[in-house]
Design a protein that fits this description.
Its main location: Golgi. Thought to be a Golgi-localized beta-glycan synthase that polymerize the backbones of noncellulosic polysaccharides (hemicelluloses) of plant cell wall. It is a multi-pass membrane protein. The protein has 28 helices and 13 strands. The strands form 3 sheets. An 8-stranded mixed sheet has the order 5-6-4-3-7-11-9-12, sandwiched between helices. A 3-stranded mixed sheet has the order 8-13-10. A two-stranded antiparallel sheet has the order 1-2. The protein folds into 2 domains: about 290 residues, no CATH class; about 400 residues, Spore Coat Polysaccharide Biosynthesis Protein SpsA, Chain A. With about 750 residues, the protein is α/β, with parallel strands linked by helices. The radius of gyration is 27 Å and the shape is globular. Helix 4 links the parallel strand 3 and strand 4. The structure holds uridine-5'-diphosphate-glucose (UPG) and manganese (II) ion. Uridine-5'-diphosphate-glucose binds next to strand 3, helix 9, helix 17 and helix 18. The site of manganese (II) ion (MN) has 4 residues, from loops.
Length: about 750
């Protein structure tokens, strides 16, 4: 499809962001950590167990820093030139777009609808697109909203294309007034479209909570007497684009699906939903590329699909090796600093090795790779090698791997051989699609094992990602400004703790499943440095243990009157280490336009999430490995963007885009997540108070100013907890948590002093 006539400028370029200065800083920090370890080894005899515990913790931190240095060594991403696409490519390839939703209460249908509308309106020929929405909540309300939205889409899509609107999610677009003179054609169209959108939101709102319309129409019959965890498969063609010429007024296909659910059948959460999406779309449109977004991740840049195609279609850079194109995840609410910084420095770093990790949303996959192909299976021209043809295309192996459906097998063969898909009536596939949503369809097939989205981890994204890299494929990262997709992120508090725990649990699960980099490092086609990069994320949960110890050590030493840190000039190692690390991370934030405040919040939240939330992931995975319980996926709550933010304070470019930025206050509830943090603060405060009144044990070595400073630093990092002790309501730590923490802290003090 793409032409490779060389005089034409490229569709994309790989940009390297490597910096010798930053490498030197990374190595300096590594060197300081190693010298600290050396000092500990040389002075081990004179000291007590504290010395050994500190040494073990610092060994972990050094190892983590080594992994980070490896990741940050050669960052890279891609710059694309979508404006060059038309002169280079005669016919753009089809793309199937997948949206997953699971709960109409935690994921309000109006958010889903906005995401779908933004997808339908992207800058791409409408006859090449199809949008599939998977609803694990089996909600008639979601289906109703989609039906209404597809009617509104007939106004919205032409409007966006006619006026080249940038943000194509109506709830965001209509937050600003139009910049045209009143009475102009544009402003009339704008008013009319806005009115229609308001009608749509009103209808969805009216339908929420009342169900009389459910009985009124036959179309909703399938939803009668269903529960979200107990119902048959539902597949509905919401809108079929029969125009098929790709003009500006056309609206792409919209299909609603909800796979069968039974209470005693395990559904593999989002991964299971994705695999059903792959199958249904395989039958109906079988596009070679598949875009996947979470239901809150609307398109913020109309050219997203074209940008991704620049990478896939650029032949000269062995595009056949690129399995997927990932965009970073950005958010319209909450404190975006942490994730932006993480994605920019670490994300780009991994992108520079074998390619970014698939992050679950904002990613374009190639269908063939999802069907299990390895890089070696392809010849130079990108078609299947003769060995691979024999291996993959034998009828009985196809049925064994993909399930017992002739149509499915045929669509897989077509996809593997890159045959163009003939236009057909979507409704013709309804019956087969229904069958493929059956609970037992995947039984004894390779779905979730080698094919599609992989099971056995609640972070199905990273699990699937390492599977792809292990088969030798690369991936590409595009980092556009403004962000390509924007979604919703829970604010600091219980909701975010649940999410962080799920992530840490899912990642740790992979360390112990068959994708583990510990096994694959030497025998699979994944690059060694890429394996190390995965190891860094998979070990998030484990980091909670040394961090928890390290937050308690200064207090213990102060109370026990023993030395934690080196004495004399050697204390310089610690001071330089902390100093350089602070300046370095601060620079990372300010370089991206974030404030000192957001840097501090991130450092503080970093310690809180590790010690309070990730800690539980260790427990989750132990229980899972012992076969006592399964890990669960609790969907995060999504909120609509507020109508308009009134805050006039100075914010960075990225921060301005986030209307819901709250006061940054931390919320608490009675859950166990907040016990470790409260305990840490109490212990450190008690140690400082004890030191002031001269309450100290008989430990050797003697503690001093360094240990006291350590305690102060910990309290500063856990400041939200200190504040929470004096607040009421949702911003206050509940009395039950406080009293448990106080009891544990008292025990800790007694043991430290008396020991
Ligand atoms: O049983 C389920 C559970 C979840 N989902 C969908 O999965 C998506 C992600 O869920 P969310 O609660 O938003 O999780 P996050 O932690 O915000 O999501 C990130 O982390 C997840 C796990 O790593 C990935 O699946 C996501 O793509 C990634 O954006 C949403 O669209 C859900 O509707 C389902 O379809 N079925
Ligand atoms: Mn989410």
């Amino acid at each position: 499809m793409a032409e490779s006539s060389s005089p034409l400028p490229p569709l994309c370029e790989r940009i390297s962001h490597k910096s010798y200065f930053l490498r030197a800083v990374d190595l300096t920090i590594l060197g300081l950590l190693l010298s600290l370890l050396l000092y500990r080894i040389l002075h081990v005899n004179q000291k007590d167990t504290v010395w050994i515990v500190a040494f073990l913790c610092e060994t972990c931190f050094t190892f983590v820093w080594l992994l980070i240095t490896n990741i940050k060594w050669s960052p890279a991403d891609y710059k694309t030139y979508p404006e060059r696409l038309d002169e280079r490519v005669h016919e753009l390839p089809p793309v199937d777009m997948f949206v997953t939703t699971a709960d109409p209460v935690r994921e309000p249908p109006l958010i889903v609808v906005n995401t779908v509308l933004s997808l339908l309106a992207v800058n791409y020929p409408a006859n090449k697109l199809a949008c599939y929405v998977s609803d694990d909540g089996c909600s008639p309300l979601t289906y109703f909203s989609l039906k209404e939205a597809s009617k509104f889409a007939k106004i919205w899509v032409p409007f966006c294309k006619k006026y080249n609107v940038r943000v194509r999610a109506p709830f965001m677009y209509f937050r600003n007034s139009p910049e045209a003179a009143e009475g102009s054609e544009f402003s009339k169209d704008w008013e009319m479209t806005k009115r229609e959108y308001e009608k749509l939101s009103q209808k969805v709102e009216d339908a929420t909570g009342s169900s009389h319309w459910l009985d009124a129409e036959d179309d909703f019959e399938a939803f009668l007497n269903t529960k979200s965890n107990d119902h048959s498969t539902i597949v509905k063609v919401v809108w079929e684009n029969k125009g098929g010429v790709g003009d500006e007024k056309e609206v792409p296909h919209v299909v609603y699906i909800s796979r069968e659910k039974r209470p005693n059948h395990f559904h593999h959460y989002k991964a299971g939903a994705m695999n059903f999406l792959v199958r249904v779309s395989g039958l109906m449109t079988n596009a070679p590329y598949m875009l996947n977004v979470d239901c809150d991740m609307y398109v913020n840049e109309a050219d997203v699909v074209r940008q991704a195609m620049c990478i896939f279609l650029q032949k000269s850079m062995d595009s056949n090796h690129c399995a997927f194109v990932q965009y970073p995840q950005d958010f319209y609410d909450s404190n975006v600093g942490e994730l932006t910084v993480l994605q920019l420095y670490l994300g780009r770093g991994i992108a520079g090795i074998q390619g970014p990790q698939y992050a679950g949303s904002g990613c374009f996959h190639t269908r063939r790779v999802m069907y299990g192909l390895s890089l070696d299976d392809l010849g130079d021209d990108g078609s299947l090698s003769s060995i691979a043809t024999r291996k993959y295309l034998a009828e009985e192996s196809l049925t064994r791997e993909f399930g017992n459906s002739k149509e499915m097998v045929k669509s897989v063969v077509d996809a593997l051989q890159r045959k163009p898909f003939p236009q057909k009536n979507l409704k013709d596939s309804l019956e087969t699609a229904q069958e493929m949503g059956h609970c037992h369809y995947e039984y004894q097939t390779s779905w979730g094992k080698n094919i599609g989205w992989l099971y056995d981890s609640t972070t199905e994204d990273v699990n699937t990602s390492i599977g792809i890299h292990s088969r030798g494929w690369t991936s590409s990262y595009i980092f556009p400004d403004p962000p390509a997709f924007l979604g919703c992120m829970p604010q600091g508090g219980p909701e975010v703790m649940v999410q962080q725990r799920r992530w840490a649990t899912g990642l740790l699960e992979i360390l112990f499943n068959k994708q583990s980099p510990l096994i694959g490092m030497f025998c699979r086609k994944i690059r060694f440095r890429q394996s190390l990069a995965y190891l860094y994320v998979f070990s998030w949960g484990l980091r909670s243990i040394p961090e928890l110890f390290y937050c308690l050590l200064p207090a213990y030493c102060l109370l026990h009157n023993s030395a934690l840190f080196p004495k004399g000039v050697y204390l310089g190692i610690i001071i330089t280490l902390v100093g350089i690390h602070c300046l370095y991370t601060l620079w990372e934030f300010m370089n991206l336009g974030f404030s000192i405040q957001s840097w501090y919040v991130t450092q503080s939240f970093g310690r809180i999430k590790t010690t309070c939330s990730w800690l539980f992931s260790v427990l989750d995975v132990i229980l899972k490995l012992l076969g006592i319980s399964k890990t669960v996926f609790i969907v995060t709550k999504k909120t609509m963007p507020e109508t308009k933010s009134g805050s006039g304070s100075k914010k960075s470019q990225r921060e301005v885009d986030c209307p819901n930025q709250d006061s940054g206050k931390f919320e608490f509830d009675g859950s166990l997540y907040f016990l470790p943090g409260t305990f840490i603060v109490l212990v450190n405060l008690a140690a400082l108070a004890g030191c002031l009144v001269g309450l100290q044990g008989r430990g050797g070595g003697g503690s001093g100013l360094a240990e006291a400073c350590g305690c102060i630093l910990v309290v500063i990092l856990f400041l939200p907890f200190l504040k929470g002790m004096f607040e009421k309501g949702k911003y206050g730590i509940p009395f039950s948590t406080l009293s448990k923490a106080a009891f544990l802290a008292a025990l800790f003090v007694v043991l430290s002093v008396g020991n």
